[in-house]
Amino acid sequence: MRFENAAFEICAGRLNQLPDSTVPEIVFSGRSNVGKSSLINKILNRKSLARVSATPGKTGTINFYRIPECRLVDLPGYGYAKVSQSEKLRWAELVEGYLNAGRKICLLIQIIDMRHEPTQDDLHMIDYLQQSGNPFLIAATKCDKLNKTQFTERWNMLQESFPNICVLPVSSLNGIGIEELRGKIESACSAGCENQ
Which of 113, 116, 156, 182 has its CA at a distance of 20 to 30 angstroms from the CA of residue 162? Predict the structure, then answer.
């Protein structure tokens, strides 16, 4: 799969702006400032295709990146307290509308920060994904910021918390887990996916 051939396609702030679902879609979900854009850039071997911001809650749209074989879809981050209630509601409706629109979602990559316990919002999203039947895995980012003892403790906690879910420790900084994640994306796309 030619990840480096990616191009920004479109951003959608409303459901009627979503592009037609004509190719497999790999979806990235996670709370604000968890490193979604950085992870997408690392997977695509690009420095700044997905816009990275130090300001949580910056991505208020669904952003689509096209590679020849599929689309990578960056959902707005959830859980940022300083965003207005009306904006949170708009984001929730946009994300739920996207996930329930019968699109060709082959894999959803749920991102959590490995340094911290999953938030209530993370747990709600994971529960939603288990109920929805969408194929998904958990990417535990920022694992490079843990020492060996901390890594082992956090890894064991994640294994116990999510025994039946694929969990991959990844780092956008030094590339830990990126090749394995690319392999999961390739497998999901080549297996094909039905409209949900």
Answer: 182
* Cβ neighbour number for residue 82 with a 10 Å cutoff: 9
Architecture of domain 8-191 in CATH? 3-Layer(aba) Sandwich (3.40)
Q: Using CA atoms, how far apart are residues 42 and 100, in angstroms rounded to an integer?
A: 28
Note if the pTM is more than 0.85: yes
pLDDT in tens, 15-62: 999 999 999 999 999 998 888 889 999 999 888 787 665 544 455 789
Sign of the CA dihedral 4, 189, 140, 35? positive
Distances (CA, A) of 57 to 16, 48, 62, 77, 194: 22, 18, 12, 6, 31
Say how far apart CA 31 and CA 19 lie, in whole Å.
Answer: 24
Query: Domain residue spans in the chain?
Result: 8-191
Compute φ and ψ for 54, nearest 5 degrees: -80, -10
